[in-house]
Specification:
The chain is α+β, with helices and mostly antiparallel strands. The protein has 15 helices and twelve strands. Helix 10 crosses helix 14, helix 10 packs antiparallel against helix 15 and helix 12 runs antiparallel to helix 13. The longest helix has about 30 residues. The chain is elongated, with a radius of gyration of 25 Å. The C terminus is likely disordered.
Length: about 375
């Protein structure tokens, strides 16, 4: 599978193996897997990066190279790298600050086997009794004619380049946001069009959540509520939306919370009814608003959820109880209307600034790979 970054991979291989780079690429399952995982490299900041599995490969190969096993051999006698050191190193890498342990522990090997079911190897070998890890060096040493070539250093360089490419894309995105934020008075139409382009079904999930939050935060910003313990002593409050965790994270949390109403918001890009009902169960069937990355009408989305639920859960009373917990559905057209409303209230620059802030937090910006 040739993608835009494939040529970069081959160029790096050519620098390492001038006469054999094409054969090295064709023979290496690990390089082909890395090629698959780097497909977002030249798609800009809107495309999700695949850092977890790539960095799992990176840190075990880096450990391998630090002891010069590519030169000295005898890797089979190595006691293995400690998990805590590998995990710490992953989080030092660009965009890696919030990575979890799944890739090192199983996810990388499972996905590799999915792409290469006939392979005799998995990338990472583990000894769970003492939490030691090794790269499977059978995937690093390739027999090309009468030569045995080691691709470890080339892989490190490839992943470094992928990381730099993604960081450059994020830099451009952040700079575009800053420029539009600074000129919003001179050219508000251009800034508005830029935001509306981010409200698309194919936008990267984390960016969609960030943009949704920025828009809804300032859409609700001037809406007031009057509340209190006594009718004669009511308090006036603006609605405030808070972001409660990492974007698009499988952390069991709820994405946004509104005070003082206590409304919960969950951002999703799926119509999988199990995901909706799981989110409802998280909060013990408390009412919840779903922000859905879809241009389908709110009525069609609700009907789709109910139809899927009726197939999965055949008891009508159970389905009805879950459906009553869906307080509101906010789709892309509704988000666009909320954005236009917030802009009319004078919050275009605030929304741009919020997108910049949340993007920097989410994508661990700035960051750089430290020298080995």
């Amino acid at each position: 599978m040739d993608i835009s970054f494939t040529q970069t991979i081959k160029k790096i291989l050519q620098n390492h193996f001038p006469n054999d780079f094409e054969r090295v690429y064709e023979k290496s399952e690990l390089l082909q897997y890395i090629n698959i995982k780097t497909k977002s490299a030249n798609r800009g900041a809107k495309a999700r990066g695949s850092f977890a599995n790539l960095y799992a490969i990176y840190v075990v190969i880096e450990d391998y190279l630090n002891s010069k096993f590519d030169i000295a051999g005898n890797y089979s006698k190595y006691k293995g790298a400690e998990f805590t050191k590998l995990f710490k190193r992953q989080r030092e890498l660009p965009f890696g600050a919030k990575l979890q342990n799944h890739a090192l522990n199983n996810r990388l090997n499972s996905e590799f086997q999915k792409y290469f079911p006939g392979s005799d190897y998995v990338p990472i070998i583990r000894d769970l009794s003492n939490n030691r890890y090794w790269i499977n060096d059978s995937l690093l040493k390739l027999k090309i004619g009468k030569k045995t070539l080691n691709i470890a250093r080339a892989i490190i360089e490839i992943i470094d380049e992928y990381s730099r490419t993604k960081k450059d894309a994020l830099n451009r995105f952040i700079q575009t946001c800053k420029n539009l934020s600074n000129i919003h008075n001179a050219d508000p139409l251009k800034a508005k069009e830029f935001i509306l382009q981010l409200l698309a079904p194919n936008i990267e999930a984390r960016l969609f959540e960030i943009v949704s939050y920025a828009i809804l935060k300032y859409y609700y910003h001037d809406q007031k509520i009057y509340w209190g313990w006594e009718i004669s002593k009511l308090k006036e409050d603006n609605l405030k939306l808070y972001k409660t965790g990492r974007t698009n994270a499988n952390d069991g949390g709820i994405d946004f919370v509104m005070k003082p109403l206590g409304r919960f918001f969950q951002v999703t890009e799926t119509l999988d009814v199990r995901k909706y009902f799981l989110d409802i169960d998280k909060i013990h069937r408390y009412p919840i608003t779903f922000v859905v990355k879809s241009v389908a009408s709110k009525e069609d989305i609700r009907k789709g959820i109910k139809s899927n639920a009726s197939r999965a859960y055949t008891i009508k009373a159970v389905v009805d109880k879950y459906m009553k917990c869906i307080e509101e559905i906010i789709n892309i057209p509704q988000l666009s209307k909320c954005f236009i409303c917030a802009v009319k209230q004078g919050y275009l620059k605030n929304i741009m600034d919020e997108i910049i802030l949340q993007s920097k937090v989410e994508f661990n910006y700035p960051g750089s790979i430290s020298k080995r």
